[in-house]
## 1
Amino acid sequence: MTQAGWRLAAPDDFDEGDWAQIEDRGVLMGARLVHGDREFPVVVYDPVRIGQDAERGTEGGVVLYEANVIMVENLTRESAETAVAYLGNAGTFDWMLG
């Protein structure tokens, strides 16, 4: 059964200027998936930035792990919030509610 009601919470003290920087950087860190009174960390990437981070993070045989990653084509506030709503409605996050 799909648990509706997921939303994206930006990092504390985040404002519109921060969103503009996030769009340029291609990564949103410190955000949270919220369902009721439960919160789970999430990172939202665009394809270019995740590729760069994966390449740097695995150099020299190092292993990279990133939990709860969402990728969107172009990272904006709207695309991140839309992705969370879409994935939440599809039941993608329901495993976290255990």
## 2
Amino acid sequence: MITVYEERRKGVVAETIEHTEASFATCLEIIRRMDGFTRSQVTFQHIESIIMIGGGSHEFIVTVETDTAIRNLLGLLEDEDEFVEITVGGQACEFPQKYIVSLELIESALHQLLLNTSAELYWEVIDK
């Protein structure tokens, strides 16, 4: 079962829309609506994992938290010295370039995490 918490901002006020028993197609549809302004944060709860996606439009970050580790999806550009500003949950934040991922990488990650398929992805793992 997948539960999705979609944040929609109206100025400084955030509204959280809960989608219970969401399908994989619904998950992708919600992510595609992320614009980095009024919709800049989505959280998925699946089995024992919390999957957080921030940003929108064409720049995203993905973090997965379990009981044993935190994993950050790594993008294709790994320039550690460069930072990118994106909005997550209505707050502009700077993230290292290596964490910025495309919509296509998010789709691959969700296939792996929600449907238990294999995908060649790179994760930074932080043990708890």
## 3
Amino acid sequence: MENDKKNTEDNGIDEQYLMSIMAGSAKKELKNQELEPAGEKPMIRQKMKNKKSSEVSYVEQFLSHHSMNKRGDKSIYIRAEYHERLSRIIQTIADDQIPLYAYLDNILAHHFEMFEKEITDDFNNKYRPIF
């Protein structure tokens, strides 16, 4: 009995949160807000809120359309577990209607859209012209 208590305390599982997920009334947003660092840029939060307020579903955002006609000439390497996870998402949620390369393209397009200003600022801060 003490071992059971020790196991639940050590692995950091929030039982109340898990029960709320099973009940269908997850309080994920509240939990995420508690975990966010205090020094996070307000711009990122605002962008995320804007995306949430437009109420575009995950399927509409990433799995329903793609602008690529073919795979392309470049190869990338990803972890085997990520490949399996992404493939399962495509097969299950998208009913195998979108190729993996297009799904990754949509994810990257969203990432660059979300963090364009931060990436540009960091790049410009580190870029030093030769002359």
## 4
Amino acid sequence: MGTSLTPEFWERFAVLLVLAVGLTCVLTAALDGVAVRLLRRRAHRTPPRTPHRPQRDNHRVSVHS
């Protein structure tokens, strides 16, 4: 028993597909905006790192094991 896809089905399918694509684009843009804001906020809060200098000792490290 085969069924054929009616024009009403294709119309609903097209409408739902367009809605899904639109919703995906809107949500992606909104979440990207949130991510950019968080990254900018984090960049402003962290102080610049200074390179760690090893402490100088007055002895030499042996090259031989």
